[in-house]
Amino acid sequence: MIAGGARVCAGGATILSRVPLRADSFDLEGLRLAAGEGRRLEAHVGVDPYLLGGERYQVQDELVPARLDISRTTGPGYAIRLRFEATLAGPCMRCLEPAARSCEVDAREVSQADGREVAEPGVADELASPYVERGVLDLRAWARDALALALPAKLLCREDCAGLCPLCGADLNASGPDHRHQGERDPRWAKLSELRLE
Question: What is the pTM of this model?
Answer without folding.
Answer: 0.72
